[in-house]
Amino acid sequence: MPHQRGQRLAARSMAFILAGGRGSRLHELTDTRVKPAVYFGGKARIIDFALSNALNSGIRKMALATQYKAHSLIRHVQRGWNFFRAERNEFLDILPASQRYEESMWYRGTVDAVAQNIDIIDSYEIDYILILAGDHIYKMDYEAMIAQHVESGAEVTVGCLTVDRGEASAFGCMAVDGKDRITSFLEKPKDPPGLPDDPDKTLVSMGIYVFDWKYLRERLIADLEDDGSSHDFGHDMIPDIVKTGKAQAHRFEDSCVRHDPAATAYWRDVGTIDAFWRANIDLTDFTPDLDLWDRNWPIWTHAELVPPAKFIHDEEKRRGSAVSSMIAGGSIVSGTEIRQSLLFTMCHTNSYSSLDGVVALPYVQVARHARLKNCVINRGVEIPEGLVVGEDPEEDAKWFRVTPGGVTLITQRMLDRRGAER
């Protein structure tokens, strides 16, 4: 494909986002929605971070592969990401698993999800393809990673986090040489390799890959015909390229978008209830590590048309107030004391209640005299009058899911069962 002189690498690239995983460790939060569609940060969804990073990096061609319980995700993308214009050569295609080859064949793995859409990717007329996981929280300039890939001449460039060597055994680990060429890929090794410049640190895979499209296309066709493959980038294709070709590591700190040059590179996998709660509550800090206020690198999302949040009543023990908290639009804090909590859109709390360390997803209703501490409340839940959670773990565990970290997950089904059995 001929390109205009000086055209950005991002304009010659597409982002293929893998968003089909259930996220079973989030338990009931993914009963009706896939993990990338889980709410985060007061008004966004997890998927918005990968999509926003691509958009802010200058990439205007994207595809989103979905599979498990995708309706919530598809509806969100249709409502919040509908500004792409085909006449400007911009696309965001949603690619559900659709049994394109055999009636029994859905997406069999991450490689297969891309391979089954070769014809669609061909139509984009791109030079480079960026493979992304759609279920992590971070800010990253992908064009910097694409530029390193082009300069190095690698078959694949792998996005890597730098972690303490003692914590790396839970990840796919990279051994690299002095120029960050990957010399071996080790899946959850007992003794992770140290870095040449820092033996106490290890590079681990972020599940982000850059390929030349022509090269990857050939590999995908070969993988489709390989009955012995598990059709997965991390288990099959990347280790094979490391052995037979050139694989380059890209360090996340080289392209992480920070609010302060001295800040730590921020990346979170919110794949457990504890991690999800902590990452949301951390946003209420005085200066959170994740800057959602940065207008130079915004997190785009679907914003509902709702009025501003409202706080009412100013009496002893009946004061509508929020300290070190984030309250989304449409919420009404009526005579409730709220501390270090995050309330999503259209939450309504009533008099004489208190919330401390609560993450309430959209449309939660809290009745009078409730006391809630260290909770995640699913969308649309109606907290009954006088409910106390977070003070007696044994009692909480009878009705709700209590995590190893002491966070209580509350869903409407749990409350209904409690009401029927009491």
TrEMBL record:
Q: Which UniProt keywords apply?
A: ATP-binding, Carbohydrate metabolism, Glycogen biosynthesis, Glycogen metabolism, Nucleotide-binding, Nucleotidyltransferase, Transferase
Protein name from the UniProt record? Glucose-1-phosphate adenylyltransferase
Q: Where is this site: Could play a key role in the communication between the regulatory and the substrate sites?
A: Q67, W106
Q: Which positions are annotated as binding alpha-D-glucose 1-phosphate? A: Y107, G172, E187, K188, S205
Catalysed conversion reaction: alpha-D-glucose 1-phosphate + ATP + H(+) = ADP-alpha-D-glucose + diphosphate
List the molecular function annotations (GO) for this entry.
Answer: ATP binding; glucose-1-phosphate adenylyltransferase activity
Q: Which InterPro entries match?
A: ADP-Glc_PPase, ADP_Glu_pyroP_CS, GlgC_bac, GlmU/GlgC-like_hexapep, NTP_transferase_dom, Nucleotide-diphossugar_trans, Trimer_LpxA-like_sf
Report any Pfam family annotated for this entry: NTP_transferase
| EC number annotated for this UniProt entry | 2.7.7.27
Please verify whether the record's keywords include Protein biosynthesis: no
